[in-house]
Amino acid sequence: MAAQILDGATLAKQIRAEVAQEVEHLKAEHNITPRLSVILVGDDPASVTYTRMKKKACEAAGMISDLIELPGDSTQQAVKDVIRTLNEDPTVHGILVQHPVPKHLDELDILSTVAVEKDVDGISALSLGRLVLGTADFVACTPLGIVTLLEHYGIEIKGKEAVVVGRSIILGKPAALALLERHATVTVCHSRTQDLPSVVGRADILVAALGKPEFIKGEWIKPGAVVVDAGYNKVEGRDKDVGDVEYETAAQKASWITPVPGGVGPMTIAMLLKQTVKAAKKYGAANV
User: Fold this and answer.
1) Nearest CA-CA partner of 163 in 220, 123, 201, 212
2) What is the pTM of this model?
3) pLDDT tier at 285 (50, 70, 90 boundaries)?
4) What is the pairing mode between strands 64-70 and 161-165?
5) CA-wise closest residue to 150 among 202, 205, 201, 221
6) Please, which residues bridge with residue 4 across strands?
7) Cβ atoms of residues 33 and 93 within 8 Å
């Protein structure tokens, strides 16, 4: 029997409508318009597309969104100076540095310059540390979108064996922590994991976050598992983008599965909007 679909596109649309209502309330009752400033260093085509999508989504929800475009050869100090200016601006509620930054820059140092109360992407060192402690205001948007999607569909996380394939600071590690916070037993896999198929085969909940097209084979999946594919890969000669999981065969064994596209991706932007509004409500100052 084919898996049921974890429809992130529909849920994200609902969340964005709720965010728009919250924005209207903040404007009317508190004279606060949530404002997100996005910093783009360089002109990576994918990053340009993502930042413009984020700006459009913010504006559709009635928020203010600034896209600050810096040259690809910007110095570490120049990028940090822009962030510090935004940190000090009381009308800016959220700051996002588009990942990845050019290779000559120290990305973690840049991310950690963002004030924690404005780190709506949840990936500075302090935000990640607070996630470990269970006290984070903001969680990395894609992992937060994943657990929100699971919870919306009534999928039990507590007590389940979860396997996360990938250990990046923006996805794999915070996804593992978010699942652990909800009382799953979590295994994190990576390039040195031995016998990956057997580890994947134990998962009640599988999160694929490694960025390799269809690397995880459907035959590895435990019957009845929940498969969350956070991959999004372009493959030459294919008419559509694919995830990290071999979808067609995985869908025959899983109980639930995210499509690509339309699963995790829309949830990421929805969580960014939601956390920016949260920052405005908790730390915001009226726009003047």
Assistant:
1) 201
2) 0.94
3) low
4) unpaired
5) 205
6) 256
7) no
The set of residues, in sequence order, having a beta carbon less than 8 Å from that of 94 and lying 6+ positions away, is 34, 35, 36, 37, 118, 120, 272, 275, 276, 279, 280
Q: Which residue has the tokens 């435990």?
A: 222
- Residue 66's φ and ψ, nearest 5 degrees, are -105, 135
pLDDT digits (tens, 9 = 90+) for 29-69: 999 999 999 999 999 888 999 899 999 999 999 999 999 99
Residue 288 has pLDDT above 50, yes or no: no
Q: What residue has token string 């004279």?
A: 31
Which residues are catalytically annotated?
Answer: 54, 98, 121
Length of the chain as a residue count: 288
State the span(s) of the chain assigned CATH 3.40.50.720.
141-265
Comparing 285 with 173, the larger pLDDT belongs to 173
Q: Does domain 30-120 have CATH number 3.40.50.10860?
A: yes
Q: Which two tokens stand for residue 19?
A: 């965010």
Residues of the chain with CATH 3.40.50.10860: 30-120
* Average of per-residue pLDDT values in the chain: 94
| Alpha-carbon distance values, 262 to 7, 163, 190, 199 (Å) | 7, 22, 25, 27
Residue 125 is predicted with a pLDDT of 92
- Rounded to whole angstroms, the Cα distance separating 211 from 205 reads 18
Q: Is the peptide bond before 197 cis (omega within 30 degrees of 0)?
A: no
For the structural domain made of 141-265, what CATH number should be given?
Answer: 3.40.50.720
Residue 85 has pLDDT above 90, yes or no: yes
What strands, in cross-sheet order, belong to the sheet with 161-165?
A: 4-5, 256-257, 226-229, 205-208, 161-165, 185-189
Alpha carbon 271 to its chain's center: 7
Report percent pLDDT > 70 for the chain: 98
Question: How far apart (Å, rounded) are the C-alpha atoms in residues 170 and 35?
Answer: 22
